[in-house]
Write a structure and sequence with these properties.
The chain is α/β, with parallel strands linked by helices. It has helices at residues 36-51, 53-58, 77-88, 107-121, 147-159, 201-212, 222-227, 234-255, 263-271, 277-290, 298-307, 312-315, and strands spanning 65-70, 91-95, 125-129, 168-174, 192-195. 44% of the residues lie in helices and 8% in strands. Strand 2 (91-95), helix 4 (107-121) and strand 3 (125-129) form a beta-alpha-beta unit. It starts with 35 loop residues before the first helix and ends with a helix.
């Protein structure tokens, strides 16, 4: 985009102003380890319509729409969304739910309009909304009845009732897709659903290297670390490295000697840490077994069946 990005927002005080992620922070799939099958699906269904609009228009298909990313916390849903925007060469709006919801009546609706107006003024654009279940929560789970008008305003903008949404992709992310209202998953809304699993072995190796390579370390075998951490999320690995770093700092302060992070200390810590994703999978297992009539969680079911390894018996897959 050669022209400066335009800001189409309500000038009234208190209404959010939405700015896209700076170009220098954009990433592509080449910077995203693993997830090969997911990248393939996203390329065909999401990215290619942006890159080859004439071909898809022949088949009455246009770029944009909505997709829902779900999976355990800390597994890179926002990172994957950024990579999609990078592949599409689109402006990326990373929106926290607090930027939309406002305590004053009517302001949430104005924020929603300002967000979509800004994205339309700078298309192609990707709007990424984390914790979409806070906005699209099932009606029976809502505590505040005044959320109804906010939800309706958001769905109207997604539907493009007043404006064309071509070349606007809306990505919602959630750890609890089963709490998202079915109205959000109707055709033309979040009708494409992608399961974001914990990083595979290749990706875990890359994540360990990312967090360790600039620290004072001994020679590290990243392959062994990746192999030893099945089902660890990226956040789990970050926390593990922080834990080891703090331990080494404590030893240095105590002994006065210069010490390095060692393979041995990393492996010892891994043995004493459990991946946080397991609690999520325990809950998700029940959803797959008892609430998957429409097949929306088939990818999750396959992961539970094929990838849980030694944990299968514990998870109930005998």
């Amino acid at each position: 985009m050669d022209e400066p990005l335009k800001s189409a927002v309500d000038a009234e005080a208190g209404i959010s102003i939405f700015e896209p992620l700076l170009e220098k922070y954009k990433i592509t799939f080449s910077q995203l380890g693993g997830l090969q099958e997911l990248k393939k699906q996203a390329s065909l269904k999401i990215i290619q319509p942006f890159k080859n609009p004439a071909l898809f228009k022949k088949f009455k298909k246009s770029a944009g729409g909505g997709i829902l990313l779900y999976g355990p916390p800390g597994c890179g849903k926002s990172y994957f969304a950024r990579a999609i925007a990078g592949e599409c060469n689109a402006a990326f709006y990373n929106i926290g739910i607090d930027q939309i919801l406002d305590m004053y009546v009517g302001n949430s609706e104005k924020n929603i309009k300002a967000l979509f107006d800004t994205a339309r003024a700078n298309r192609p654009a990707v709007i990424f909304i984390d914790e979409i279940d806070a906005l699209g929560r099932k009606r029976e789970l809502l505590r505040h009845t005044n959320m109804t008008s906010t939800i309706n305003a958001f769905l109207a903008q997604m539907d493009g009732v007043e404006s064309d949404n071509e070349n606007i992709l809306i990505i919602g992310a959630t750890n609890a897709p089963w709490d998202v209202d079915s109205a959000f998953r109707r055709p033309g809304r979040f009708d494409r659903v992608f399961f974001i699993p914990p990083p595979d072995e290749e990706a875990r190796e890359e994540i360990f290297h990312l967090y360790l390579h600039e620290l004072p370390i001994e020679e590290i075998n990243y392959h062994v670390l990746g192999e030893a951490t099945p089902h660890f999320s990226g956040a789990d690995i970050s926390g593990l490295v922080d834990r080891v770093s703090e331990s080494v700092i404590e030893e240095i302060l105590s002994s006065g000697e210069e010490l390095l992070i060692s393979q041995e200390e990393l492996m010892e810590t891994i043995e004493n840490v459990k991946p946080t994703t397991m609690e999520w999978f325990e809950m998700a297992k029940n959803v797959v077994e008892y609430a998957n009539e429409n097949g929306i969680y088939d990818e999750l079911g396959e992961y539970l069946k094929n990838e849980m390894g030694s944990k299968r018996k514990k998870m109930g897959f005998l």
